[in-house]
């Protein structure tokens, strides 16, 4: 069952590589049917009580590669696959003007396979390999347009991420030398039996460098605005919505909470870096003139919120982190898709040159409004509730400074989203844009789908829904070392 | 011990090249040096003095204690493949940048700011 999440997209990519050159309809069809099928499959797995494991090739643990589907993995799977589905449907009209569309969809599916594999694998070297595979697909997709800016940002992205991953590899080597195993549960168990604080401290720093680069927390954020703003819009939606969350935040959480065990130092590091990201991203976003760059800086700020609330270490904080992660994935993907629709219709992304598009593109304007309000935290959208819970959790954990920063920057967030709305969709319609039409129906479909998600996700706060979707993930993180026992079945 | 030290020196040399050099090709070479340093590190982890290759020549008398660690070598093979792919894509991007900008110097490749 768990292997399907990896095999099906890889098989789809293979089919596209074989026949996509001759028939573009097959690559379009594979492009959306695979994520749609996997979304349904992932949703059907939600609510599984026990920890699912699968041994690749039938090798016993801890020798072979294990796939682990526990609460945390099963929480991430539907998020990833639904957003990939929306972005894939949006891509079909969007890439009409570019050449070699089949390569685009093949890379898209490879990226999906790598994200699914990262959240499912229980082997630390396998995790590294899949992160590199996802990274490679995304480097190629960022420079898909082959424009000077795209090439420059892709080079920067590729070099920074490769260096970060080499640090991760160094850390894996040190862990392997100490524990003689690559199974994450076994590593956790051995580190628990024979603690070695010096080693764990050094490896923590190495992993923070590598995975911090992937998840773009502040000292390592410099690749993100360039890569996000120059990539094709559905790819930016994917990068910002799920790639940095599954490859960056998920791996950080899994290793810090379940393998090393959460302690005070890691908590302080999470809180410090989170607050730094919130402030830096929020303040830099105000000054941006480019629509997609503004959204990219906003991503840095919101990732800071997520990291901060996980750093609190209380069950309520973890719940708030997961809640905000889902809300941000839906809302930010939606915003990148609406910016893509504007870009597709007008070919312009400077906010100063747009304006008044509300009359011509009602669906885009409305969905963009929903997304902006959700990220900036206006009731009754999902983003309001998750920010509220983050602030309540911070006050309960006696982080008054963090709580006040979170409140202050959420006002700043509202300010720059209002700027975006005012400059692009409201105000006077410039005469240049008199002849534009609404985006194609496929784009509207995926934007409306995500807008419905943005409004509906507030329901995750209700106790019954929360118990099914988020509580299992919180239990895995709060359980800490119980992950090792559950996987090894001791 | 000294070989681990030299391995780290190689790693830092690659990092130095990435941080200081201004030519795109030299940056890619720096990355390759770092990758080789990491591969060397893994080989050193699995090395045992006087040990043989990890292949069982007879099933009746296996001697796993006189063999080097095969897992580390398997990881190196996987890492070499990944490194090849990364180098490949970086070189292609560098060639395309040369076509668009007419230079390999990163000081002139600066359309993105902030």
Spell out the helices and strands of chain B N to C.
Answer: HHH
Q: Which descriptor suits the 3D outline of chain B?
A: elongated
- Considering residues with a beta carbon less than 8 A from a beta carbon on another chain, report the largest interface and each chain's count: A-B, 36 and 33 residues
* Class inferred from helices and paired strands of chain A: mainly alpha
H/E topology pattern of chain A? HHEEHHHHHHHHHHHHHHHHHH
Count up the helices of chain B. Answer: 3
| Largest sheet descriptor of chain B | none
Main sheet overview of chain A: 2 strands, antiparallel
CATH class category of chain B: Mainly Alpha
End-to-end separation of chain A in angstroms reads 23 Å
Extract low-pLDDT stretches of chain B. Answer: none
Radius of gyration of chain A: 21 Å
Q: Which band does the percent of strand residues of chain A land in? A: under 5%
Helical amount among residues of chain A, as a percent range? over 70%
Give unreliable regions of chain A as ranges: none
What is the typical, i.e. mean, pLDDT of chain B?
Answer: 88
Question: Please, could you describe this protein's structure?
Answer:
The complex is a heterodimer of chains A (490) and B (114). Chain A is mainly α and 490 residues long. Chain A has one domain. Chain A contains 20 helices and 2 strands. Chain A has helices spanning 4-19, 24-45, 71-94, 101-120, 124-142, 148-179, 184-193, 197-215, 223-230, 233-261, 264-286, 291-311, 315-346, 362-376, 382-396, 400-424, 441-456, 463-469, 471-479, 482-488, and strands spanning 52-55, 66-69. In chain A, helix 3 (71-94) crosses helix 19. The mean pLDDT of chain A is 89. By secondary structure, chain B is an all-alpha fold. Chain B has one domain (2-51, 64-101): Orthogonal Bundle (Helix Hairpins). Helices cover 65% and strands 0% of the residues of chain B. Chain B has helices at 2-20, 24-46, 70-101. In chain B, helix 2 (24-46) packs antiparallel against helix 3. The model of chain B has no long low-confidence stretch (mean pLDDT 88). Classes of the chains: A mainly alpha (490), B mainly alpha (114).
């Amino acid at each position: 069952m768990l292997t399907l999440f990896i095999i099906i997209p890889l098989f789809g990519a293979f089919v596209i590589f074989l026949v996509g050159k001759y028939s573009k309809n097959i690559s379009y069809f594979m492009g959306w049917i695979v994520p749609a099928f996997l979304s349904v499959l992932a949703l059907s797995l939600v609510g599984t009580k026990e920890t699912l494991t699968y041994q690749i090739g039938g090798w016993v643990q801890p020798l072979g590669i294990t796939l682990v589907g526990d609460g945390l993995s099963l929480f991430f799977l539907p998020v990833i696959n639904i957003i990939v589905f929306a972005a894939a449907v949006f891509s079909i009209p969007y890439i009409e003007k570019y050449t070699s569309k089949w390569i685009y969809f093949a890379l898209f599916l490879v990226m999906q396979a790598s994200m699914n594999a990262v959240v499912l694998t229980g082997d630390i070297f396998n995790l590294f390999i899949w992160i590199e595979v996802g990274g490679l697909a995304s480097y190629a997709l960022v420079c898909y347009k082959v424009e000077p800016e795209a090439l420059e940002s892709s080079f920067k992205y590729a070099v920074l991420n490769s260096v970060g991953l080499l640090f991760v590899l160094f850390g894996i080597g040190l862990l392997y030398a100490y524990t003689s195993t690559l199974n994450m549960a076994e590593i956790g168990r051995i580190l628990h039996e024979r603690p070695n604080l010096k080693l764990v401290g050094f490896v923590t720093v190495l992993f923070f460098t590598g995975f911090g680069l992937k998840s773009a927390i502040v000292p390592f954020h410099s690749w993100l605005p360039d890569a996000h703003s120059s990539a094709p819009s559905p790819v930016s939606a994917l990068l910002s919505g799920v790639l940095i969350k599954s490859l960056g935040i998920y791996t950080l959480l899994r290793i810090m909470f379940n393998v090393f065990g959460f302690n005070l130092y890691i908590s302080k590091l999470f809180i410090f870096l989170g607050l730094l990201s919130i402030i830096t991203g929020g303040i830099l976003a105000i000054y941006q003139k480019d629509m997609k760059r503004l959204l990219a800086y906003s991503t840095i700020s919101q990732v800071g919120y997520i990291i901060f609330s996980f750093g609190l270490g209380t069950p309520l904080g973890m719940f708030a982190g997961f809640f905000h992660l889902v809300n941000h994935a839906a809302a930010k993907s939606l915003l990148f898709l609406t910016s893509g629709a504007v870009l597709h219709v007008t070919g312009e992304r400077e906010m100063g040159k747009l304006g008044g598009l509300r009359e011509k593109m009602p669906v885009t304007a409305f969905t963009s409004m929903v997304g902006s309000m959700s990220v900036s935290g206006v009731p009754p959208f999902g983003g309001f509730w998750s920010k509220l819970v983050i602030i309540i959790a911070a006050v309960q954990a006696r982080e008054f400074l963090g709580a006040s920063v979170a409140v202050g920057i959420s006002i700043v967030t509202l300010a720059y989203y209002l700027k975006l709305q005012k400059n692009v969709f409201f105000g006077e319609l410039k005469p240049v844009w008199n002849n534009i039409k609404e985006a194609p129906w496929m784009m509207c479909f995926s934007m409306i789908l995500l807008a419905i998600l943005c409004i509906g996700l507030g329901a995750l706060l209700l106790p019954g829904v929360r118990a099914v979707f988020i509580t299992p993930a919180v239990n895995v993180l709060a359980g800490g070392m119980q992950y090792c026992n559950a996987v090894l079945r001791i | 011990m000294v070989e681990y030290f030299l391995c780290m020196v190689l790693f830092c040399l690659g990092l130095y090249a990435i941080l200081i050099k201004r030519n795109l090709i030299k940056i890619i070479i720096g990355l390759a040096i770092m990758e080789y340093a990491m591969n060397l590190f893994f080989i050193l982890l699995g090395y045992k003095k006087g040990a043989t290759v990890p292949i069982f020549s007879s099933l009746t008398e296996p001697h796993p204690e006189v063999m080097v660690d095969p897992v580390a070598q398997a990881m190196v093979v996987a890492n070499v493949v990944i490194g090849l792919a990364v180098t490949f894509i970086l070189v292609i991007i560098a060639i395309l940048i040369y076509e668009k900008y007419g230079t390999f110097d990163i000081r002139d490749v600066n359309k993105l700011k902030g």
